Amino acid sequence: MTTLDIRGLRLRLPGAARPVLDGVDLSVDASETVALVGESGSGKSLTSRTVLRLLPKGAATEGRVEVAGDDVLTMNAKQLRKLRTQTAAMVFQDPRAAINPLRRIGDFLTESARLNKLMTAAEADTRAVELLDAVGLSADLMRRYPGQLSGGMLQRVMIAAALMGDPRLLLADEPTTALDVTSQAEVVTLLADLRERFGTGLLFVTHDLGLAAAISDRVYVMYAGRIVETGPSESIFARPRHPYTRALLASTPSLDTPQGRLTAIDGQPPDLRQELHGCPFAPRCPLATEVCTTEAPQSTSAPGEPAHTAACHHADRLAREAADV
Amino acid sequence: MSDLLLDVSGLSRTFGDVHAVDDVSFTLAEGGSLGIVGESGSGKTTTARIIVGLDRADAGTVRVHGAEQTGTARGRAARLARARRIQMVFQDPYLSLDPRTSVHDVLRETLRLHFPGTDHAARIRELLDQVGLGTRAADARPRELSGGQRQRVAIARALAVEPAILVLDEAVAALDVSVQAQILNLLADIREQTRVGYLFITHDLGVVRCVTDDVIVMRRGRIVESGATARVLEAPEHPYTQLLLASVPRPGWDPRAIGAARRALAEAESAGAEAGGAKRPAAV
After folding, report:
1. Which residue in chain A has the smallest CA separation from B186?
2. For residue range A197-215, what is the model confidence (pLDDT) as tens digits?
3. How far apart are CA A217 and CA A35, in angstroms?
4. Which of A90, A203, A304, B270 falls 20 to 30 Å from A187 in CA-CA distance?
């Protein structure tokens, strides 16, 4: 069962010379964890926000974004409200920026359910206490204020709030980036538990490749508004088929790399004011040839692995090189 | 004269009844690179701020080349002299650069303050070149630059006074990995060329592994483990260092076990603290 299905999503913004999202295809099944990785400006947050139609001003969209079978881009106000309160929910990076510091935690958790008349105030309270328990927090937090909680606790409150409407899809945009590494592990455990218990599909947006490898079933790698590579996470991290994915992995300092120089990617991602011809990564790519600057590469599957695709003219060459090393 | 570049001894700082920094001692050799790792509330940033002179210590000394840094530098000359010994690069270059001042003027201002009456134009070109910025970037204001370029400007400004020590407080944490790699490589090159010593404050053990010779691990104001980076990361002795290492996400990672280890450590410590007395910053 497909919880989220994005097909050919194109998003244009006023003042940008090219689409900010350019033909994005992405899907999340029920009970599946999918990571969307990329650097700032790649369009990964914009993609996840489009799922709730939280679009910047003046944005024009093409394509389809279906959540549980309904196209988000053509919804009316009432349907959209139902989508945002009951079908899909989002957990943001900074819990302190997403919560009113002057209202009690209990108010915050039950507000949406009460205002949308999904349940009575008493039922909402009961549900909120249940969810606090599910995220490992005690019921007396209901009467506390956000300022009295640590960042890790508050992020768990945000996750509990996201689950109030029993969403089919949870969008998590860098939910652990603001947390310490040891609390990150706790939040990740929590998300995995909830996915198992409620069958929620999870789209995890992150810039952290190690984290994506550790928690996700499948991965999408974005660059300049396009999905450049996707596949099962073991396969992507062990045998990247796109030079950008390989370069990202090489430039991440890890515990296994010895002291010394990292393999940096020279240059900058393409500017939005610039039109793109051919492959967006070509100017920074060590494998680029003439065809890369003229013709946009289509996604092709790895031999014997139909689910692992990369949009690169030289994907097979890269795979052969990796095999030789 | 000591051949040690930086000698920190018995540093303590309390805020109310919380020991933010508690009897912290370490040394940094000439041209060396020391990492300070820890989570929020570990006291790593307070330690850095005391060393730079942005905060004062309740007890303990900070010596650079054997000369003690006074707790509060009184007067303009003393403050400038301290700035020439130690410079700091902050996490967010957008907040630490004046949005209305061009890159060229930022550097000229610093040079004028410290070296009045010398030829600044040549030195500015040299600094821009050293951090890999072109002359086009020199006329730009901070908002016209990318995050990586802004951090290069912050590094150029810190290097302008030819400091003996550069304190880098999460200086690459806000950057994308591809840009972070460029900046880490740049810092490695600069250390080779200038023999400046680095104090690298970070929560990222991968970064520590990459750019430091030695490392100290801080927790709740205290140093729990210290030693050569390779040794500490390969054979950590303290349970907290072990927990930090286990927390780094990788394939086959077990977040559940980390959560359990974290709670076990917190319980063991709170049992110890009740017997011990003084209050520490609460665990998150």
Report:
1. A261
2. 888 999 999 988 889 988 9
3. 8
4. B270
Q: How far is A172 from chain B (nearest CA, A)?
A: 17
ipTM over 0.90: no
Instruction: For tokens 């020199």, name the residue.
Output: B138
CB contact under 8 A, A253 and B256: no
User: Are A151 and B40 inside 8 Å of each other by CB?
Assistant: yes
- B15: domain range? 4-276
CA-nearest residue to B173 within chain A is A177
H/E stretch holding B207:
helix B205-211
Please, what are the domains in chain A? Answer: 1-94+168-325 (3.40.50.300)
The band of A324, judged by pLDDT with boundaries at 50, 70 and 90, is: low
pLDDT in tens, B120-160: 889 999 899 889 888 778 888 888 888 888 899 999 999 99
- In chain A, which residues have their Cβ closer than 8 Å to the Cβ of B40? 151, 180
Report yes or no on B155 lying in a domain: yes
Residue located via tokens 């999340």 = A28
What CATH number should be reported for the domain holding residue B250? 3.40.50.300
Suggest the residue from A186, A245, A263, A268 to mutate for an interface test with chain B (most B CBs closer than 10 A).
A186
**CB pair distance less than 8 Å for B177 and A192:** no
Inter-CA distances, B126 with A109, B96, B179, Å? 56, 22, 22
Beta bridge partners of A27: A5
The pLDDT score that the predictor gives to residue B254 is 85
**Predicted confidence (pLDDT) at residue B166 exceeds the cutoff of 90:** yes
In a domain, B282, yes or no: no
Nearest residue in chain A measured CA to CA from B207 = A253
CA R_g for chain A: 21
With contacts defined as CB-CB under 8 Å, which chain A residues touch B248?
181, 210, 255
> Which pLDDT band, with edges at 50, 70 and 90, does B277 fall under?
very low
In a domain, B16, yes or no: yes
Q: At what angle do helices B147-159 and B120-130 cross, to 10 degrees?
A: 130
